[in-house]
Amino acid sequence: MDLGIAGRKAIVCASSRGLGKACARALAEAGCEVVINGRDDKVLQAAAAELGQIAGGNAGLFRWAPPRTPRGRCRRRSANSAR
Fold this sequence. Notes:
This protein has a three-stranded parallel beta sheet with strand order 1-2-3, covered by helices on one side. By secondary structure, the chain is of the alpha/beta class. It is 43% helix and 13% strand. β1 (9-12), α1 and β2 form a beta-alpha-beta unit. It has a single domain (9-81), classed as 3-Layer(aba) Sandwich (Rossmann fold), CATH 3.40.50. α1 (18-29) packs parallel to α2.
């Protein structure tokens, strides 16, 4: 099916695995230039390589690394700021 989106640019968040990766794959197969992101570098690199083969090199890669904070620190901050 031709969606008429070939040559367009797409950003798919949380796209290194699961539903996000499936969406990125569908867009790449439709001819879009796809930018993906995720938190796990190894999984993200593998997804980018896979999508790059499908899209003929039109898959972009954006790496996002979450801040290194102790577990629960953000929750405590938001709970304290609500008071």
